[in-house]
Amino acid sequence: MPKVNMKQGKRWTSSHRLLKLKNKNVFLRTNRVVEKVLFHQNFEAYGIQYLHLGKSYRVKASRGIILSAGVIGTPKILLLSGIGPKTHLDKLNIPTKVNLPVGDNLQDHITTGLDLILLNQTLGIGIEQMLSPFSVFEYFLYGTGPWTTGGCEVLAFVNTDSTDVNRDTQPDLQFMVMPLGINEDIGVHLRHLMGISDYTWNNYFSYLNQMKAMTILPILLHPKSRGTVRLRDANVNSLPIIDPGYLTEQEDIEVLLKGINLIKKLINSRSMEKLGAKLNTNIFPGCENFKFDSKAYWECYVRHLTITSYHPVGTCKMGHEQDVSAVVNYDFQVKGTNNLYVIDASVMPTITSGNVNGAVLMLAEMASDIIRSKDFFSRKKCSVIEIFVSKDFC
Ligand SMILES: Cc1cc2nc3c(=O)[nH]c(=O)nc-3n(C[C@H](O)[C@H](O)[C@H](O)COP(=O)(O)OP(=O)(O)OC[C@H]3O[C@@H](n4cnc5c(N)ncnc54)[C@H](O)[C@@H]3O)c2cc1C
């Protein structure tokens, strides 16, 4: 579940609030995997089928079903239910109930630039403080200290398009500033978290073991590249095939290169000079054939060092009923079905100009109002006057 804010040194999530509410009409069942949605006549959703301890169960819904399984989980459930691109479902022998572009339009915020800045001093938090028993003590006793850091200390948003007269309108880059590099833990944990191979670690990051690094990540906010989520087969236990399509559009590389140029300018600023900041001039493995600091070198670097910032969206795109690229309409309803809704980051047609979670929560608030009012009006018995005043609602 998503992150919301910090309290007593911990990141809190929307589930914390939900659990606190103790609503009598909320029943939580954990350790269940939803397999598919059940339909009458291929369009009327009436329940779901889920797996629990290897057995399948069915639950009926009297009013409607809301899928909130996220950008990968929701398209997976829809595809297994026969809602998706017919060509793909045909290959897996899943009968198509509604032919929709489920799983297309995958977008993500990507970044580069790990350990690109080297310093001659530590900035506050280092591995020693993290591993100190005092830090552990401080965290559990008072909710303070190094263990409460979110990692990222500063965020900045920039519109790098110098031809855009209205430069305040939409940033294309976000900078995430962290006071340490991934070399800080000498390869024990962070590099595995980032999926860095032994070869790259040994030939690039491990050289920095005796040095202090800091991180300014340039994050591509509005990628042009698109990816897909598809089923591997018709088995609910199989992992889906995620093709993120990162950097398939050259424009995305150009924006990240602008980000690296801005970082180089920052390094030369007086404040950074005071910290002894300098550019990491080690050649990134795979880019040995390019002259360091040339455009070709940085393009190679970006292609080799691309990481997600964990903000995927868009695989069940929202749009007009007539929009063939849309999966849900503006009422969050899956097109061509009844009583089936999607509320999560998958409905975003394009990605946000910043972290996604707040926008997901706002979508959820809005969706609950829309769905509740739809449900109210569909049940409402209309008087003769109301029929004349507003035919839509009766
Ligand atoms: C490591 C990490 C760090 C992040 N940091 C930030 C941040 O600092 N700020 C920010 O704004 N955003 C952050 N995000 C992104 C943010 O968490 C997501 O954008 C947000 O949670 C998306 O919400 P969602 O409701 O779409 O999906 P999710 O929060 O992913 O919820 C989907 C839920 O459905 C469940 N599920 C999936 N399939 C099934 C199934 N078949 N049956 C039953 N349950 C299923 C999943 O287990 C999950 O609990 C981060 C993400 C990650 C991974």
Task: Please describe what this structure looks like.
The protein is an alpha+beta fold and 394 residues long. The chain folds into 2 domains: 3-107 and 312-393, FAD/NAD(P)-binding domain (3-Layer(bba) Sandwich), CATH 3.50.50; 110-226 and 244-308, 2-Layer Sandwich (Glucose Oxidase, domain 3). It has helices at residues 14-21, 70-80, 86-91, 127-131, 133-142, 190-193, 198-203, 250-267, 270-274, 295-304, 357-379, 384-389, and strands at residues 3-7, 10-13, 33-40, 44-52, 55-60, 65-67, 83-84, 98-99, 110-111, 117-119, 154-158, 173-178, 212-220, 228-230, 241-243, 278-279, 307-308, 340-342. α8 (250-267) crosses α10 (295-304).
Taken in chain order, the helices and strands follow as EEHEEEEHEHEEEHHEEHHEEEHHEHEEHH
Radius of gyration: 25 Å
Portion in beta strands:
15-25%
* Oligomeric form: single chain
Biggest sheet details: 7 strands, antiparallel
- What CATH calls the topology of the largest domain is FAD/NAD(P)-binding domain
CATH superfamily descriptor of the largest domain: FAD/NAD(P)-binding domain
- Percent of residues in helices comes to 25-40%
Number of domains: 2
- CATH architecture title of the largest domain: 3-Layer(bba) Sandwich
Shape: globular
- Unreliable stretches: 390-394
What's the β-strand tally?
Answer: 18
Q: How many angstroms separate the termini? A: 37 Å
Derived structural class? alpha+beta
Bound molecules: flavin-adenine dinucleotide
Number of helices: 12
Main CATH class of the largest domain: Alpha Beta
Arithmetic mean pLDDT: 90
